[in-house]
């Protein structure tokens, strides 16, 4: 069974450039995207940007690739990145102080990506803790944040973003066809990748300005509104503190960790791991 949406043939795909010239058309960057390093194919945009950062590239530098041959996601998973259909990008931050909580470097791209996809497509894209993006219950985008620490604060932060834009059902591996989607699969039409990148960079600029100005609670509140599953959702925790258990989500704490009222009793704080939604709810809800 293939994902919902139209069945596409193997027709030649129209040109959909994401070169610096295409991205800068009708878009004037303030920080993110003033310098864009574009590649037709790379192993990983995060790896490519890390090498560029070591050569002194400035804050706001963006790496874009038309294809990744070894794209990475959270928990050391592979991000399937076929040529010409998705957005594979990484951006560089160079924080000047330690006043920004580390979890915001994950919440920032999650909120920006959800807002950008909603702006361009009008589709109901949501955040699944901490930084996966879903559309109608299927994953459409993922984020990988790499932080390199300095003496007193992060020396550099590399944020990788992968988005399934014009992927057809056949572009998804069989094992992902029931759990992943793309804008094209969901809407039955193609989208300009450059237009999505423009919207994404604009949203990143807005969110980063909030972080630097000390009004980051506005960003946290935006994350909450875009992530309804973080409150009152039956879930299974896989790999949290080395144990698996089930419970009900009860919000996030001051460090962005997920709070889960466990079925076996008590509230667990989850800072890392995988959270899977349980369809149909728990057989024995906490407190029952």
What distinguishing features does this structure have?
alpha+beta, BirA Bifunctional Protein, domain 2, SH3 type barrels, 2 domains, five-stranded antiparallel β-sheet
Describe this structure in words.
The protein is of the alpha+beta class and 288 residues long. It has 2 domains: 207 residues, Bira Bifunctional Protein, Domain 2 (BirA Bifunctional Protein, domain 2, 2-Layer Sandwich), CATH 3.30.930.10; 50 residues, SH3 type barrels. 24% of the residues lie in helices and 28% in strands. The chain is built from 6 helices and 12 strands. It has a 7-stranded mixed beta sheet, with helices on both faces. The protein has a 5-stranded antiparallel beta sheet with strand order 11-10-9-8-12, with no helix packed on it. The protein is globular.
Discrete helix count = 6
β-strand percent reads 25-35%
- Termini gap: 37 Å
Fourth CATH level, the homologous superfamily of the largest domain? Bira Bifunctional Protein, Domain 2
Quaternary structure = single chain
What share of the residues lie within helices? 10-25%
Write the layout of secondary structure elements.
Blueprint (H helix, E strand, L loop, with lengths): L19 H5 L11 E4 L5 H10 L7 E4 L20 E8 L10 H18 L3 E4 L3 E4 L2 E12 L4 E11 L18 H5 L5 H21 L3 H10 L4 E10 L2 E10 L5 E5 L4 E4 L3 E4 L11
Parallel strand pairs: 1-2
Antiparallel strand pairs: 2-3, 3-7, 4-5, 5-6, 6-7, 8-9, 8-12, 9-10, 10-11
Helix pairs in contact: 3-5, 3-6
């Amino acid at each position: 069974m293939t994902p919902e949406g139209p069945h596409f043939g193997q027709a030649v795909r129209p040109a959909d450039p994401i070169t610096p010239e295409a991205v800068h058309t009708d878009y004037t960057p303030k920080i993110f995207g003033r310098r864009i390093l574009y590649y037709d194919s790379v192993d990983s945009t995060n790896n490519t940007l890390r090498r560029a950062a070591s050569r002194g590239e400035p804050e706001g530098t963006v790496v874009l690739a038309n294809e990744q041959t070894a794209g990475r996601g959270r928990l050391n998973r592979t991000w399937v990145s076929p040529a010409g259909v998705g957005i594979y990008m990484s951006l560089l931050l160079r924080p000047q102080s330690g006043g920004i909580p580390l979890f915001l470097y994950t919440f920032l791209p999650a909120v920006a990506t959800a807002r950008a996809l909603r702006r361009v497509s009008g589709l109901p894209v949501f955040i699944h803790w901490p930084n996966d993006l879903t559309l109608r219950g299927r994953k459409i985008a993922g984020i990988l944040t790499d932080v390199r620490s300095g003496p007193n604060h992060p020396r550099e932060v590399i944020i990788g973003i992968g988005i399934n834009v014009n992927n057809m059902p056949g572009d998804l591996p069989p094992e992902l066809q029931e759990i992943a989607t793309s804008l094209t699969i969901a809407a039955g039409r193609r989208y300009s990748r450059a237009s999505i990148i423009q919207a994404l960079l604009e949203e990143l600029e807005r969110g980063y300005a909030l972080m630097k100005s000390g009004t980051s609670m506005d960003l946290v509140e935006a994350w909450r509104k875009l992530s309804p599953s973080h409150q009152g959702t039956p879930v299974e925790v896989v790999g949290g503190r080395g144990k698996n258990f089930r419970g009900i989500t009860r919000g996030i704490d001051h460090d962005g960790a997920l709070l889960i009222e466990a079925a076996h009793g008590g509230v667990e704080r989850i800072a890392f791991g995988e959270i899977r939604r349980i369809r149909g709810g728990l057989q024995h809800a906490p407190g029952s």
